[in-house]
Amino acid sequence: MMGTKNSFAALPVFFSLALGIAFPSSGAAAEKDYPLCTVGGYFSGSGDKFLSELAKNIAQKRNIFGDPICNAAWKNGYKTGENFSKTGKPKNQAEKFVSQQAAEFRAQVVNP
């Protein structure tokens, strides 16, 4: 049992390292971080709480979560995720792009 507890304690460290490699941070690249807000909203709208919270936590570390651009991106992503979860398909090219961003984010988390 004790080995299991230690494994779970290591998960946040693993994800921090994996995501730090997958999504490097820099002040000059802030505009490149806004897709985190879009995919976070997408996963929130589609009901995937784990990936939504993960994107939110990364955006918070990058100091963009809650700013006006991130809020707008989150709302847009949320609408897309909500629509996709209801219909199973994007309704336009913009939603298709958001869905592709979400799929790429999921792939980076699942296969770091």
Which features characterize this protein?
112 residues, mainly alpha, 5 helices
What does this molecule look like?
The protein has 112 residues and is mainly α. The protein has a domain at 33-110. Helix content is 79%, strand content 0%. It has helices at residues 2-22, 30-46, 49-61, 68-87, 93-110. It is globular and about 35 Å long. The relative contact order is 0.16. The model is unreliable at 1-23 and 25-29 (pLDDT under 50).
Task: Summarize the structure in short.
With 112 residues, this protein is mainly α. Helices cover 79% and strands 0% of the residues.
Q: How much helix, percentage-wise, in residues?
A: over 70%
General shape? globular
Q: What share of residues are in beta strands?
A: under 5%
Specify the number of helices: 5
Q: Structural class of the secondary structure composition?
A: mainly alpha
Radius of gyration: 15 Å
Calculate the mean pLDDT score and round it: 80
Say how many strands there are: 0
Order of helices and strands: HHHHH
- Distance linking N and C termini: 27 Å
Low-pLDDT segments, ≥5 res: 1-23, 25-29
